[in-house]
Specification:
Elements (H helix, E strand, L loop, with lengths): L1 H7 L7 H27 L28 H29 L4 H26 L4 H24 L9 E2 L3 H27 L16 H29 L3 H26 L4 H23 L2 E2 L3
Antiparallel strand pairs: 1-2
């Protein structure tokens, strides 16, 4: 990243407090577009714009008619938000490069966030062109989770101004447990997308595409994984409370536990109440917050992780 550093030295520098604010805004934007994407899906507006990159053949914007419903406006609005996310990602990259010119890994993470947005747009377009194939819809969501994790890493990494090798802030076994917990958390999120892809909210009000799995069976499998994950979260928290050198690590894993419990409650309530839209949307928001909390928790176990 020496080239980046040399370029950064010639650019106006963003003060670090301002840079951290921009990184937080970028994270909020990444989580926000997940929520608006959920609105698209839950209102059956996934094919409100039936083609891509145009909204309708011959026009990049919706063409309103007397028969038009709200679906095209919902989908087009979500597409417009992509530009806001791009601006935030560009601002985040500029902030990292100028505020922390010596932090090569942090700059690579910022590049990853920016590069992920066009990849997400292309994947979203393919999803539309394939009639909302449930596996592509799931991949679209999972890529968003990756971007949330990377954006969280930017915020967390900006807290460490030191250079050089990282310092482990918990017992090595505690870090191993934290990493295993995060891996199981990723499995939980993946299974959650399969549950959603097998249930009623396909994203299209007229011709829903489903995985073909029994929703009850995959829901049980997801619930079993959640139970395992919850136990690992508690185990990690205990290990951290005993061995952590900083209060930040302890707070981070308390946050992971809090989000996990909230997600569990929402998940069970939505299952037994026939998946009301509001609760499903809250569960999607919770998934984003869980990914962010887990990312922060793992990175907090080492000083200067990125």
């Amino acid at each position: 990243m020496s080239l980046v550093s040399s370029v950064a030295s010639r650019l106006p520098r963003v003060p670090r407090p301002w840079a951290r604010g921009i990184l937080i805004a970028n994270l909020v934007g990444e989580i926000g577009i997940v929520v608006t994407g959920g609105v698209v899906r839950l209102t059956g507006s996934g094919l409100g714009c039936p083609t891509w990159p145009e909204c309708v053949p011959g026009s990049f914007t919706p063409v309103r008619t007397d028969e038009s419903q709200i679906h095209d406006l919902v989908e087009f609005g979500n597409r417009l938000l992509t530009f806001a996310v791009v601006i935030l990602a560009l601002a985040a990259l500029y902030s990292v490069v100028t505020a922390w010119p010596e932090r090569g890994r942090l700059q690579l993470v910022a590049v990853g966030v920016l590069a992920g947005i066009p990849a997400q747009a292309i994947l979203g377009g393919i999803t539309v062109l394939t009639g909302l194939n449930p596996w592509l819809v799931a991949s679209h969501f999972l890529l968003s989770m990756v971007l949330v994790a990377l954006s969280t890493a930017l915020v967390r990494g900006s807290r460490d101004d030191v250079s050089g090798p990282g310092e482990l802030l918990v017992h090595p076994l505690a870090r191993v447990v934290a990493l295993v917990t995060s891996l199981v958390g990723a499995v939980v999120v993946v299974l959650g997308t399969i549950v959603t892809g097998s249930g009623p909210h396909s994203g299209d009000a007229d011709t829903p595409a489903r995985t073909g799995f029994d929703p009850r069976v995959v829901s049980w499998l997801h619930a079993d994984a959640v139970m395992l994950f919850s136990g690992l979260v508690v185990a990690t928290l205990v290990a951290v409370l005993i061995t952590a050198k900083t209060d930040e690590v302890r707070r981070a894993w308390w946050a992971v536990l809090a989000v996990t419990l909230a997600q569990g409650v929402i998940g069970y309530v939505q299952y037994f109440t026939a998946l009301p839209i509001v609760l499903v949307l809250l569960h999607m928001l919770g998934a984003s917050l869980l990914v962010a909390a887990l990312t922060w928790g793992v990175l907090a176990t080492r000083r200067h992780p990125v």
